[in-house]
Amino acid sequence: MKKLYALLFVFLFLSISAQDLQKIAKEIKDEGIILYRSEMASWYGTDIFIANYPQRENISGYFSYIDEGVPKCIFFSGENKVIGTVAFPTTMNQKTQNLI
Fold first, then answer.
1. CA atoms within 13 A on the CB side of 14
2. Which residue from 66, 74, 71 is spatially nearest to 88, judged by alpha carbons?
3. Among 6, 32, 42, 52, whose Cα sits 20 to 30 Å from the Cα of 68?
4. Could you give the CA distance from residue 97 to residue 88 in angstroms, rounded to a whole number?
5. Is the pLDDT of residue 98 over 80?
6. What is the DSSP letter of 100?
7. pLDDT digit string (tens) for 10-30?
8. Distance between CA 18 and CA 80 in Å, rounded?
9. Which of 45, 72, 41, 71 is nearest to 59 (CA)?
């Protein structure tokens, strides 16, 4: 009888831990997608901005982030002033970018 209880306990424990693993895997996947979209905004945003902004010496840096589901890449000058923003739709198609 003790073996039966032990076996039931093991099955119960495995089913609970499997649900936790699926939740953790989903959180990791969601974070990975956000990081990927941010990196794509940096990659394409830099190409687009440099092609459209002739004064490269004014560009001091950039960063990208996701704003309400929209990947954006912000470029700033040495005085920490925003000199340009490139925003993408969620499809991340370089041909449908918006220069702000």
1. 6
2. 71
3. 52
4. 5
5. no
6. -
7. 666 666 655 677 888 899 999
8. 48
9. 45
